[in-house]
Structure formats: structure tokens, C-alpha cells
Task: inverse folding
DNA sequence: TCTGGGGTCCTAGGACCC
DNA sequence: TCTGGGGTCCTAGGACCC
């Protein structure tokens, strides 16, 4: 039996945990650069603010109803997430952290429906009491059914939904729209609707070959999982990443080469630090720039350039050298740039990297320097010590106009309680 | 005025190998 | 006139997830 535990309106719930005045009010948390609504309280959903919608489109509603718009605070959400995830081992050792606000749990052995429901309720009440975050719990004999259960749980009074192992569950699956099935996105949902498939039960009963032809083996698996045939297994040891990306929109449109170059240098530094944090090295790097596609009156340019490293590396100055060389090749004046980014590609574990006979970089020395830098930045904040290429000017940073404090990860952010 | 960021997987088709 | 069979690797594009 699988359970899927999903935090309700996670980012908003984290903010409310530290600011009780937000309870009962419409609240949204915005994406980077204060662009889109990525988490909404139930009150904000009720006002019609859509998921991932640019918030300026709702400025009238925001004003009229006093919607609280907060910048995202990933240091806070990441820390709360870790605390929640660490609780699940109380119920089972088989835990897969699926995203910042979701985890799969697996329960072996036979249990009755009421026994399962008891566990689900216990998980819910414990997480709420110990962390202050409300969660929904869905259960089923496959991951896809557990996911379906959690969708249905959100609408239920108890916040839990068990799709019993020995039952058809047809009535439950009938009330789930096909686009709410895990693995079915907008494109497939539209196509399925056109073929008369509207609910999870329609999809479950559809012809396997017909589905496979259009939706490939992936869609076929989803169908079988809804029928209770396990095709998607638990990932108890998360596989290493294959790519790593750091990209940001700018706080304003940039035209000067120096400014775009500086942003890219900083993103490169941060990406390299992430890479070292995961004990990986990259074999190549891709640099890309973007103009603003929504400004159709402006000329558009979206170049990218990939270069191979002579030796797999995670050393910042070495990566910077190649990334900035790639940048110099693709940058063209005369455009208004909105975004820049770097992808580190073909990642492999540090200790499995292929060495190069004619390597002329002193890697021991460079690695010691990186370890020292990472240590200092870990202790005093991630931008304490860095390379000058990314830190000369300041005017291009993304907007975070209404960001709350790092209540749980920084002494300066500690909540002050006054009488 | 204002539109996020980070990932994965699958397939088809072409190049190339023996 | 008749023109094999089996395989790998790479890339672009499209779908999905949060």
C-alpha cells in the first residue's frame, strides 16, 4: 500500500505558521521576481486567482480584497519541508521525498481499510501538531492511486482518502477529472476529452492499445496503475542528477553587456556551489540568454551555446572561464535581455570522473580553495565570499519586494514575540 | 509597467558501425 | 532483375512533474 502525503497550499501555510495574522485572509506567494502566483490560500483560490498566473492580471482583485502578496522565501520553505519529511520514518522506513511538499510512503503487510484510514489520520494530525502545516493523505495500491486519493482527500472533510486495496473504487475515480490524474497534463487531457474520456474511471476503462499509441508507454503505465497494476516503483535512493540549472529573470530589462555578463557570472558561481554540494562534476556547460517573449514589439533573441570541459570539473573559476567564453560568443548588442541562465550537463559523481593525462590545472589546490569558500559561505551566508565577476554592480537583481524573514535558518530572522 | 525556475522521460529520425 | 540485418548513439521536440 502506498500513501501520498501532500502539504496543503504549502508556501502559504509556511508563511502563516510565522504570521498568524495571515489566517483567514487571502494570501498568495509569488514566484521569483514577484511574477506569478505559485501558492494560494483557499481564500485566494476562491477569488479566482489561478495557479501560476502572473499576478498583475489580478491587480484589481488584489486591491479590492486586500490579498496579501508575499515574495517567495525558499530558505524557509526548504527548512520546514525537511522537518516534515523527517517525521515520516515514525510510520515506515520506506519514504520517498517526491517534491518540496510531497512524499510517498510504502506500507508492507496486510491491513484493513479502517486500519489504513487510522494511519492516514494519525499522519495528518501529527504533522499538523508538530509543524503547524496541514496535509492531505491519499492511499492506494499503486502510486498513481495514492496520488488520486490525495486529490480527493483535499475535497473531503477528514483530509484523508483511502482507495481500498480490495475494492473497485469506481465511484471515487468517477469524481476525479482525467486532467487531475498524475501523469496526464493539459495536452493529453484535451485530446482525451475529445475522445469522450473525461474522468479517471473513463481513462481506466479505455483501450490499452489506443492509449499507448498516442500517449506512449508512459500513458500506458498510468492506465495500468489506475487498474491497480504497479508500474511505478519507489525511489528510495534518489538517483544522481543528470543536469543542474541556475537561471533567473532580471529585475529590469538589461542592454549592457557588462550587466548581463555579471549576472551570468553570479549564476555560474551559485550553480558550481550546488554541484559541489551534491559531490558531482560536470562535463559540459550550456549558457543561454533570453529576451522578453511577451514584449512582441521588441526584437527577440534566444541564443545558447554549449561547450565541453577538457576535464570533468566543479571548480568555480574553471567553469567561469568556459561559461563566460561561451557568453562572449552569443551576446549581441541591441537587444533587451530579460533572463540569463547556465546549465551544467553530463554530471557524474566526483569520485567516478575520468581524469586527463595532460591536465594542467592543480586540482588539489583548487579543491581546497573551493572547500574553504563553501565552508565560509555555509557559515555566514551564501554570498559572503565570491568571485568579483559576479559582484561589481547591483542593479539587475530580481525583485523580492515583500519577502519575510528566514525565521528558522538565520539568527537575524528569529521571530520576536512581544507582549 | 508587470508573465518563474528546476527537473525527467520518451520517441522518431538520421548518422554511423560491422 | 535481384540491393541485408542488426545494432548504437545523438539530437530535437514534445510531453509530463512540482
Result:
Amino acid at each position: 500500500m502506498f500513501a501520498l502525503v501532500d502539504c496543503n497550499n504549502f508556501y502559504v501555510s509556511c508563511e502563516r505558521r510565522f504570521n498568524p495574522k495571515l489566517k483567514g485572509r487571502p494570501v498568495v506567494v509569488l514566484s521569483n521576481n514577484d511574477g506569478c502566483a505559485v501558492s494560494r490560500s483557499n481564500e485566494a483560490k476562491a477569488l479566482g486567482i489561478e495557479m501560476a498566473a502572473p499576478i498583475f492580471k489580478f491587480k484589481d482583485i488584489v486591491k479590492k480584497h486586500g490579498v496579501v502578496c508575499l515574495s517567495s522565501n525558499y530558505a524557509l520553505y526548504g527548512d520546514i519541508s525537511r522537518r516534515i519529511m523527517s517525521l515520516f520514518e515514525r510510520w515506515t522506513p520506506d519514504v520517498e521525498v517526491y517534491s518540496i511538499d510531497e512524499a510517498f510512503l510504502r506500507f508492507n503487510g496486510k491491513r484493513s481499510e479502517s486500519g489504513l484510514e487510522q494511519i492516514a489520520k494519525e499522519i495528518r494530525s501529527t504533522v499538523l501538531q508538530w509543524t503547524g502545516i496541514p496535509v492531505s493523505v491519499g492511499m492506494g495500491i499503486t502510486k498513481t492511486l495514492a496520488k488520486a486519493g490525495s486529490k480527493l482527500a483535499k475535497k473531503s472533510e477528514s483530509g484523508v482518502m483511502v482507495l481500498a486495496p480490495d475494492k473497485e473504487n469506481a465511484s471515487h475515480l468517477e469524481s476525479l477529472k482525467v486532467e487531475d490524474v498524475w501523469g496526464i497534463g493539459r495536452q493529453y487531457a484535451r485530446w482525451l476529452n475529445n475522445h469522450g474520456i473525461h474522468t479517471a474511471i473513463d481513462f481506466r476503462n479505455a483501450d490499452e492499445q489506443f492509449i499507448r499509441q498516442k500517449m506512449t508507454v508512459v500513458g500506458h503505465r498510468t492506465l495500468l496503475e489506475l487498474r491497480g497494476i504497479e508500474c511505478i516503483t519507489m525511489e528510495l535512493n534518489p538517483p544522481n542528477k543528470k543536469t543542474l540549472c541556475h537561471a533567473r529573470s532580471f529585475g529590469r530589462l538589461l542592454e549592457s553587456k557588462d550587466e548581463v555578463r555579471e549576472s551570468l557570472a553570479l549564476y555560474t558561481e551559485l550553480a558550481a556551489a550546488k554541484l559541489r554540494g551534491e559531490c558531482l562534476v560536470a562535463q559540459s556547460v550550456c549558457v543561454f540568454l533570453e529576451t522578453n517573449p511577451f514584449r512582441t514589439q521588441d526584437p527577440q533573441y534566444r541564443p545558447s551555446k554549449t561547450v565541453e570541459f577538457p576535464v570533468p570539473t566543479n571548480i568555480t573559476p574553471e567553469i567561469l572561464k568556459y561559461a563566460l567564453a561561451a557568453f562572449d560568443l552569443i551576446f549581441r548588442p541591441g537587444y533587451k535581455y530579460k533572463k540569463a541562465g547556465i546549465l551544467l550537463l553530463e554530471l557524474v559523481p566526483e569520485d567516478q570522473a575520468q581524469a586527463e593525462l595532460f591536465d594542467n590545472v592543480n586540482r588539489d589546490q583548487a579543491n581546497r580553495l573551493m572547500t574553504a569558500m563553501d565552508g565560509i559561505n555555509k557559515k555566514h551566508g551564501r554570498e559572503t565570499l565570491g568571485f568579483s565577476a559576479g559582484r561589481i554592480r547591483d542593479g539587475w537583481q530580481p525583485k523580492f519586494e515583500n519577502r519575510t524573514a528566514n525565521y528558522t535558518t538565520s539568527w537575524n530572522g528569529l521571530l520576536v514575540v512581544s507582549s
The longest strand of chain A covers residues 280-291. Chain A has a mean pLDDT of 93.
